[in-house]
Amino acid sequence: GITDFAQRQLGDVVYVDLPAIGRLVTAGAAFGAIESVKAVSELFAPVSGEVLEANTALAHRPEAVNSAPHDTWFIRVRVSNPSEVASLLSSTEYQALLT
């Protein structure tokens, strides 16, 4: 998913384009897109791996990204390089970037 800050910047989400199951994603590379009334933005993979599941409910309810951004997931990935997880930001580190 995306953060509350990101969804507020986007505005009302109207479409989410997600990858097919089995697709390989690479940390830092785009894997899909999110469209709002303001703009279309790429979605970037936080880690590398294989897409095990995509949240197909977003095809019918993309606005869930706005109403519950921290509970709305996009894809589930089998991580291929566990060391990449160590480079992810904690909530505190992310908040510090915003201020």
Task: Report on this structure.
This protein is α+β, with helices and mostly antiparallel strands. 19% of the residues lie in helices and 30% in strands. The protein contains three helices and six strands, in the order αβββββαβα. It has helices at residues 4-10, 64-67, 91-98; strands spanning 13-17, 24-25, 30-36, 40-44, 49-54, 75-79. The strands form two sheets. A three-stranded antiparallel β-sheet has the order 1-3-4. It has a three-stranded antiparallel β-sheet with strand order 2-5-6, with no helix packed on it. A hairpin with a 3-residue loop joins strand 3 and strand 4.
| Number of distinct helices | 3
Roughly how much helix do the residues carry, as a percent range? 10-25%
Written as H for each helix and E for each strand, in order along the chain, the element string is HEEEEEHEH
Q: Give the overall pLDDT as a whole number.
A: 96
Shape: globular
Sheet/helix structural class? alpha+beta
Major sheet size, sense and barrel closure: 3 strands, antiparallel
In short:
The protein has 99 residues and is an alpha+beta fold.
What topology emerges from the helices and strands here?
Layout: H1 4-10, E1 13-17, E2 24-25, E3 30-36, E4 40-44, E5 49-54, H2 64-67, E6 75-79, H3 91-98
Antiparallel strand pairs: 1-3, 2-5, 3-4, 5-6
Keywords for this entry:
three-stranded antiparallel beta sheet, 6 strands, alpha+beta, single chain, 99 residues, 3 helices, globular
